[in-house]
Write a structure and sequence with these properties.
99 residues; 65% helix
Amino acid sequence: MAGSSAGYWRAGRPRPTSYPRAAAAPALQAILEQALEAADWFGSAHRAQVLEATGLQDTIERLEAVQRLIIEETRVSMLIGAAVGYELAHVLNENQGDD
């Protein structure tokens, strides 16, 4: 089956839908948003950086400044996402026998 994941699942691995806590995954977005808000990521300092970057007259400088902001935002989001994932794995491993 070219382009199919059927071979992966035949390897004896459980399908994602078989995980009892898979329904909790959508809550991870809310956790990420809460963490960013708690760190005042979208606060006045961030808005000031966006205004500064987009207000540059030179097109190349403006492009580079906006790209730096996007890269920084992506890195922070990935770090928070990884931390949340590790904590979730830790909690799930602790509670594995509770079901």
